[in-house]
Amino acid sequence: MSSYRSAFRPGLFDGQVVIVTGGGSGIGRCTAHELASLGAKVALLGRNPDKLETVRAEIEGEGGEAACFPLDIREEPAVEAAVAAVLARFGRIDGLVNNAGGQFPAPLAAINQKGWEAVVRTNLTGGFLVARACFIQWMADHGGSIVNIVADMWNGMPGMGHSGAARAGMVNFTETAAFEWAGCAVRVNAVAPGWIASSGMDRYPPHMRDIIRGLAEHVPLGRLGLEAEVAAAITFLLSPAAAFISGTTLRVDGAAPNFKPHWPAAKGKPAPEWDAFPLASKPSVLGEG
Ligand SMILES: CCCCC/C=C/C(=O)SCCNC(=O)CCNC(=O)[C@H](O)C(C)(C)COP(=O)(O)OP(=O)(O)OC[C@H]1O[C@@H](n2cnc3c(N)ncnc32)[C@H](O)[C@@H]1OP(=O)(O)O
Ligand SMILES: NC(=O)C1=CN([C@@H]2O[C@H](COP(=O)(O)OP(=O)(O)OC[C@H]3O[C@@H](n4cnc5c(N)ncnc54)[C@H](OP(=O)(O)O)[C@@H]3O)[C@@H](O)[C@H]2O)C=CC1
């Protein structure tokens, strides 16, 4: 019997098979545990086979069932083969959690084409390839539910330009796929985590640790989110409780969708319009000068 303490009804996913990409760590690992604890057989996808194997052993040690399918989601033939291998192993695919992703923090001017494409392919192209393979190989004929993990980077986020552009694309892909695949009883939604205390945070460089520790101050709910809180949102969207929900993006961010980490501001440069329009109001609240 699993020791994972799910908020959902036991057996909710009995007999179902769910693919979790990035299932070897962080939010993906936690989601895999959540789903396995509710009866799902879980297919773990990611690049590092050792990480996947560790999670598989954890789940099976708790009485669940899981299998590993190492791949890079950016490689179309590998994606097609992995989805086929999941079907060969488990015989069906009811759900996909498109969670694999990540980026390196850098200002736009420091990102070259190779770096931009590495991140866009990780956070947009890869998710599209996995969803498309699941749809064509199984869900088009049998229905299913897809949850794409994006990120709370609305209206731009300094240092995350490549990732933000990819996530915006993934939200639009979610909306389009929800339309196009609805006729096949396939629901497609997204979850947008804000600042989450996941293992992924340890992958950022040492100079960012103080920034990460200070993030909670900028979250109205006063803390970072937990991996399990993102997993619960994903589980809800996969479940029958969300049967009439498709094409939406669910924020899991403690009410902090637009926080921008500190970024150097332009100093000492008055707005040109100020002088160009001599009759412009000068609000007294701003003081003289
Ligand atoms: C509220 C909003 C939330 C925002 C917070 C988000 C949090 C998270 O997402 S937590 C998850 C964290 N996990 C990760 O970010 C995963 C770790 N990152 C990676 O794996 C990589 O960054 C990757 C996603 C791009 C995959 O990399 P890979 O394909 O292995 O590529 P390389 O590392 O070989 O790099 C390719 C290329 O990219 C450029 N580049 C890499 N690092 C930098 C850098 N620091 N600055 C500028 N450019 C960089 C560079 O062009 C690399 O090529 P080479 O120069 O030939 O190495
Ligand atoms: N933690 C946070 O605050 C936030 C996280 N997110 C997003 O949530 C998702 C999970 O992140 P989190 O758990 O925190 O971090 P992790 O870094 O622990 O998880 C990312 C997972 O994606 C896998 N992955 C990355 N690139 C590829 C690839 N090309 N092919 C296959 N697998 C890949 C990694 O495994 P491997 O390296 O073995 O391939 C890893 O298991 C990511 O998309 C992340 O960007 C979004 C907003 C905030």
Write down the oligomeric state.
Answer: single chain
Order of helices and strands: EHEHEHEHEHEHHEH
* Largest sheet, spatial ordering of strands: 3-2-1-4-5-6-7
Bound molecules: ligand LGGBLMCM, NADPH dihydro-nicotinamide-adenine-dinucleotide phosphate
Q: Largest sheet, if any?
A: 7 strands, parallel
Approximate shape? elongated
The total of helices stands at 8
At CATH level 3, the topology is: Rossmann fold
CATH superfamily: NAD(P)-binding Rossmann-like Domain
The CATH first-level class comes to: Alpha Beta
Number of domains: 1
Termini, distance in Å?
Answer: 70 Å
Helix content: 25-40%
Compute the number of strand runs.
7
Strand content range: 5-15%
Q: Class by helix and strand content? A: alpha/beta
Radius of gyration based on Cα positions: 21 Å
What's the overall average pLDDT, rounded?
Answer: 93
CATH architecture: 3-Layer(aba) Sandwich
Tell me about this structure.
Helices cover 40% and strands 13% of the residues. It has 289 residues and is α/β, with parallel strands linked by helices. Helix 3 runs parallel beside helix 4 (113-142) and helix 4 packs parallel to helix 5. The model has no long low-confidence stretch (mean pLDDT 93). The protein contains eight helices and seven strands; from the N terminus they run E-H-E-H-E-H-E-H-E-H-E-H-H-E-H. Strand 4, helix 4 (113-142) and strand 5 form a beta-alpha-beta unit. The chain has helices spanning 26-37, 49-61, 76-90, 113-142, 161-182, 209-214, 227-238, 272-276, and strands spanning 17-21, 41-46, 65-70, 95-98, 144-149, 186-193, 249-252. The protein has a single domain, classed as Rossmann fold, CATH 3.40.50. The longest helix is centred in the middle third of the chain and has 30 residues, at 113-142. A seven-stranded parallel sheet has the order 3-2-1-4-5-6-7, with helices on both faces. Bound molecules: ligand LGGBLMCM and NADPH dihydro-nicotinamide-adenine-dinucleotide phosphate (NDP). NADPH dihydro-nicotinamide-adenine-dinucleotide phosphate is lined by residues 21-22, 24-28, 46-48, 51, 72-74, 99-102, 122, 126, 149, 151, 193, 195-196, 198-201, 203.
